[in-house]
Write a structure and sequence with these properties.
It is a single chain. The chain contains seven helices and 19 strands. The protein is an alpha/beta fold and about 300 residues long. The structure holds NADP nicotinamide-adenine-dinucleotide phosphate (NAP). The site of NADP nicotinamide-adenine-dinucleotide phosphate (NAP) has 16 residues, from helix 5.
């Protein structure tokens, strides 16, 4: 049996695509991955998803999952392990099982890069965050640090000054790689301090972040600074390993789309953070998911497969 549409991923883009596809009678197969819910499962409270004044990220994703389950009959909670887009219908593998499909929606998202410190993982949601837009408002009148020297770090630092009493950027070199305009905004912001040539060796705190231990990369000097929050802004990696060499991607591995959600292969659509390197917001990812499902439906209809 060949599926009309397979959807890969279970963040806001994947679940929304699945709901739209199911309601369009496409009887989609959703391959959600073992770890369902995407990046929102790593945040604490969400206050910017319309309809929910305040909800925990994992709870919002549970609600999306329950909503999807109401409409989608076929869900496999495993990872897709291989994809073959060189043949049509396209082939998706989950371990040894093969699934054929006339159209594919890729909503595999992106993963925030982390420093890889043991205490970082333990304190995610307790002061450690990978998303200033999501979590910044919880740091009203508190001290926070931002790690990184790219546009994301500049943007996060500036954004966080709306809430925090002071923001310290910790960067491993003595110059930023961010665009000049973004750097200038940081340099002009009186609430932002910069610690150059330093990396975080450890994040301190039992139940929540209380400080960081930093090491000067030039002198080797180690010191501790007090802080209430640590925002990691050292980049994101789109989860596109399965599609390398099969779809057009940019130099950072994001799937290139044209006409919003269309990829370089007919009938293959990409939605959410896997192709959106700019906004990276749950509500926007959900919108991309809806667009992909609508376009998949049109594609199938145009081939008399819908
Ligand atoms: P990025 O440009 O790759 O910058 C990552 C930063 O993190 C770099 O400064 C890097 O240091 C640092 N870093 C990487 N690994 C680290 C580690 N293990 N420990 C400490 N520091 C580490 O990533 P990004 O800032 O997320 O930007 C990604 C893309 O999105 C860029 O093309 C950017 O222009 C774009 N973007 C644009 C906007 C905007 O225009 N408004 C906003 C955000 C992002 P080094 O410099 O030493 O390598």
């Amino acid at each position: 049996m060949t599926e009309k549409v397979i959807i890969l991923g279970s963040g806001p883009a994947g679940y929304t695509a699945a709901i739209y596809a199911a309601r369009n009678d496409l009887d989609p197969l959703l391959i959600s991955g073992y770890q369902t819910g995407g990046q929102l499962t790593l945040t604490s409270e969400v206050e910017n998803f319309p309809g929910f004044e305040s909800i925990l990220g994992p709870e919002l994703m549970e609600k999306m999952k329950a909503h999807a389950k109401k409409f989608v009959k076929k869900i496999i909670e495993k990872d897709a392990t291989k994809v073959d887009l060189s043949v049509y219908p396209y082939k998706i593998f989950v371990e040894d099982e093969e699934y054929d499909t006339y159209s594919l929606i890729i909503a595999t998202g992106a993963s925030a890069r982390w420093l890889g410190l043991p205490n970082e993982k333990r304190l995610i949601g307790h002061g450690v965050s990978g998303c200033a837009t999501c979590d910044g408002a919880f740091f009203k009148n508190k001290s926070v640090v931002v790690v990184g020297g790219g546009d994301s770090a500049m943007e996060d630092a500036n954004y966080l000054t709306k809430f925090a009493s002071d923001v310290t950027i910790i960067h491993r070199r003595n110059e930023f790689r961010a665009s000049k305009i973004m750097q200038d905004k940081v340099f002009k912001n009186p609430k932002i301090k910069i610690i150059w040539n330093s990396i975080i060796d450890d994040i301190l705190g039992k139940d929540h972040v209380e400080g960081v231990r930093i090491r000067d990369t030039v002198t080797g000097e180690i010191k501790e600074i007090k802080t209430d929050g640590v925002f990691i802004a050292i980049g994101h990696d789109p989860n596109t390993g399965l599609f390398k060499g099969q779809l057009d991607m940019d130099e950072q591995g994001y799937i290139i789309t044209h006409d919003f959600v269309k990829t370089s292969k007919d009938g293959v659509f990409a939605a959410g953070d896997v192709q959106d390197r700019k906004y990276k917001q749950a509500v926007i990812a959900a919108g991309w998911g809806a667009m992909a499902a609508i376009d998949a439906d049109k594609f199938l209809a145009s081939k008399n497969l819908g």
